[in-house]
Every structure is written in C-alpha cells, then in structure tokens.
Amino acid sequence: MNEEKRTLPRYRTVRECFEEIKRLDEQTVISEYFIRQLCKSGQVKCYHSGNKTYVNLDSLFDYLNNEPP
C-alpha cells in the first residue's frame, strides 16, 4: 500500500511567530509589527479569524530566508 505522508501547515499567531523567531535568535531585529505588515501585504500566507491573524510559520521562515537583498 502506497501511503503518502501528509503534514499540516504550522499556523501560529503573530505573537507566537515572534516568540519562535526570538527563541532562535535573541538578537533579532524582526518585530511583531513587521510580521503583521508582511501579512497585510500578502507576502506570507496567513488568515484572519475575528481579530486574530494566524500566520503560516513555514511561509514566514521561507520569506525571511529567501528575501532578496
């Protein structure tokens, strides 16, 4: 039987994304405001539910790792 491994996207709140980045790099210059602006501009995958914004953590990391200079 051919079983395809499925994974779910890792969605986090803006604050949780910021805390994860801060955990990985204590000296980061990335802010919660910057993450929100990336969401508003459509540069990272996210969705809104009520007054919360949920960010695809992998999309955010891809953006931060591949942003052109």
User: Percentage of helical residues?
Assistant: 40-55%
Principal-axes geometry comes out as: globular
Report the CATH topology name. Answer: Arc Repressor Mutant, subunit A
Count of separate structural domains: 1
Across the major sheet, the strand order is 1-3-2
The main β sheet shows up as: 3 strands, antiparallel
Computed over alpha carbons, the radius of gyration is: 14 Å
CATH architecture: Orthogonal Bundle
Tell me the span between the first and last alpha carbons.
Answer: 46 Å
State the secondary-structure class.
Answer: alpha+beta
Count of DSSP-assigned helices: 3
Q: Mean pLDDT score, rounded?
A: 92
* Count of beta strands: 3
SSE sequence, one letter per element:
EHHEEH
CATH class categorisation? Mainly Alpha
Give an overview of the whole structure.
The chain has helices spanning 14-24, 32-41, 57-66; strands at residues 11-13, 46-49, 52-56. By secondary structure, the protein is an alpha+beta fold. It has a single domain (11-66), classed as Arc Repressor Mutant, subunit A. The protein has a 3-stranded antiparallel sheet. The termini are far apart. The model has no long low-confidence stretch (mean pLDDT 92).
